[in-house]
Amino acid sequence: MTEVSVDFSPALRGTEQSAPLLQVEDLRVEFRTRVGVAKAINGVSFEVNSGETLAILGESGCGKSVTAQAIMGILDSPPGFITGGEIRYRGVDLLKRTDEERRLVRANKIAMIFQDALSALNPVFTVGFQLAELFRKHRGMSRADAKKRSIELLDLVKIPAARQRVNDFPHQFSGGMRQRVMIAMALALDPELLIADEPTTALDVTVQAQIMGLLGELQRERNMGLILITHDMGVVADVADRINVMYAGRIVEKAPVYDIYAKPSHPYTKALLESIPRVDLKGQQLNVIKGLPPNLTRIPAGCAFNPRCRYTQDVCKADPVPPLHQIQPGIASACHFWKEVRGE
Amino acid sequence: MGRYVIRRLLQFIPTVLGTLFLLHYLTSVGMQLTGNPVRALFGDRTPSPATVEAITRKLGLDDPCLKSPGNPCLELFWQRLGLAPRNGTFSGYLQGDFGTNLRFREVTDIVSTALPYTLKITLIAFLVEAIIGIIAGVLAGKRSGGFMDYVVKIGTVLVISVPVFVLGLLVQLFVSVKFGNWLRTQEWVPEVISRGLFGAAYKIDYPFASLVIPGVVLGLLGLAATARLTRTSVQENLRADFVRTARAKGLTGKRVIGVHTLRNSLIPVVTNLGLSVAVYLTGAIITEGIFNVPGVGNQIGKAIFQGESMVLIGITTMLVLAYLTITLLVDLLYAVLDPRIRYE
């Protein structure tokens, strides 16, 4: 295969370095399936800046990963369609750009790491090939140079004996090492924003801490923006600056990480925190959130959480959806009864 | 790997011995029931008993066991293998003596004359099947439900459901005869095309051109299967996590499909291609018959009708060996395509 153009730093036209790194504004995504239209994201807005870590927290199926895929532009379409909103990178709405421009944003400006590194790495190519590919295709490097850079990257993510391991296949690595390879791959082209979609879910607890530590370290060194998508409140506590809690395709609470743990403002966040097993409550029943997340083809009227909420009153069961109430600067809750939830 | 190959090669021995015995037994029973095949040589004429007896003895068919139906003729079997002496000398397969047909032509000679035709036709069929089949499969699988998908789905069903003798005769009638006849009236068309490529049967003057259409007809059946397999496999792999990763790496659509999807999709296709080659080598009886190609299939057909037991045993054994070798090669190719497969 021959390379047509070799653009060494493909800059997107019209970007302004002074603009925020990433702004998502009223994003809406739906999946058109045979059984109906699933409204996966219903008006999500948030912002990430360089050097900042934003955690997006929520149960499976709440739209976290779909948000990430929409930002990356790798949503499977069909069935997924972005029906509204803006995704602005440095002031440029990516949704208005051509496929080719968006392709060059991926990996160069915005990179992503996935949950299960074993299935996310191609089983039939060596780790070195999969890393070097980025340098060869995006930077036009020779095979030898690209390999040298790949070894440096593996060193950077602290893989021992990188020089030998670069020729190994993904299945020859342990789970933690594979996730390090994923991180190396995402960082290869020095992106400004990294989206980590459940980066530690498939790993042991001890390895989780190492990987999160590594991610945090690399982020500080490079002053990257980081969007951390997770369902694990423990992972979030150490790394994130701010947390957005999602439920049924909407953000229901936004707050700095400390405030959320100290004083949640949405019943869903509160229930999530209470459902974490605690040593001092050993022997008692675990607190679980009753019921299941709503079917996205039939989201209940009003607040989507109302069937499972202990604060529910009639106003919660009817449209309109509760808006995000600004409680303090940086703290917002989409609950009519945020005062009661906060115990104020 | 080396030990695996040796073990597989050793497994050839019982398979080949089994085939040899089965063929020996079936042809012996044939002679026991229908009588001495030597008599058929004389057609309407009645040869003297002495002549028949002399020829029979020379062919080694004078063993009395061939007159008692059901007798496995073990002694004769050992003699044919070269493990027991006949008239004081060991001359059988082990010594490289594959016997003669009833007219004292060496079986090795018959095979070596017929084999080049079959190899050529197999090569053409294989190329048609592999190249067109894989391309059609990828085009169909790339967009499931798209236009190409329907074209390939309908086309393959048509090809699969028409028996090869009907297909062969139709192609011969419409392409080689009707279209060929018109071509032959056109002066600007070179003879190699009008008489060779579009000739109705194999012609000695155009040893390769006149084999193209028979090869294509032979390859069509396998092509349909290959296209279908590739299509399903590509569709399946396109949903894989590693393909999403490849997209997230900002690779071009061409590379995502041509490198990251195709390599993984080819594993089941290679099995099918290997088996196809084996079938082409053995099963071209009908196609070779229709287009009058003097290949191996044709010789098998003749040997069956004329009771040429030695020819039948010789060719079939050779084909069994070819079949075993091809399946071994296919298994070894797996390890090349998928590094997770290791042979110990």
Written account of the structure:
The complex is a heterodimer of chains A (344) and B (344). Chain A is 31% helix and 22% strand. Chain A contains 12 helices and 12 strands. Chain A starts with 21 loop residues before the first strand and ends with a helix. By secondary structure, chain A is of the alpha/beta class. Chain B is an all-alpha fold. Chain B contains 13 helices and no strands. The longest helix of chain B has 36 residues. The model of chain B has no long low-confidence stretch (mean pLDDT 86). Classes of the chains: A alpha/beta (344), B mainly alpha (344).
Attribute tags:
heterodimer; A: 344 residues; alpha/beta; eight-stranded mixed sheet; four-stranded antiparallel sheet; 31% helix; 22% strand; globular; B: 344 residues; mainly alpha; MetI-like fold; 0% strand
Q: What's this, in brief?
A:
The complex is a heterodimer of chains A (344) and B (344). Chain A is α/β, with parallel strands linked by helices. Helices cover 31% and strands 22% of the residues of chain A.
Question: How is the secondary structure organized here?
Answer:
The complex is a heterodimer of chains A (344) and B (344).
Chain A lengths: L21 E12 L2 E13 L4 E5 L6 H9 L7 E10 L2 E2 L5 H7 L4 E4 L3 H4 L6 H13 L3 H14 L5 H4 L9 H13 L5 E5 L7 H18 L2 E6 L2 H7 L2 E6 L2 E7 H6 L4 H8 L50 E4 L2 E3 L4 H5 L2
Parallel strand pairs in A: 3-8, 3-9, 6-7, 7-8
Antiparallel strand pairs in A: 1-2, 1-4, 4-5, 9-10, 10-12, 11-12
Helix pairs in contact in A: 4-5, 5-7, 7-8
Chain B lengths: L1 H33 L14 H11 L14 H8 L25 H36 L4 H15 L2 H22 L5 H7 L11 H30 L2 H8 L4 H31 L1 H6 L5 H11 L2 H29 L7
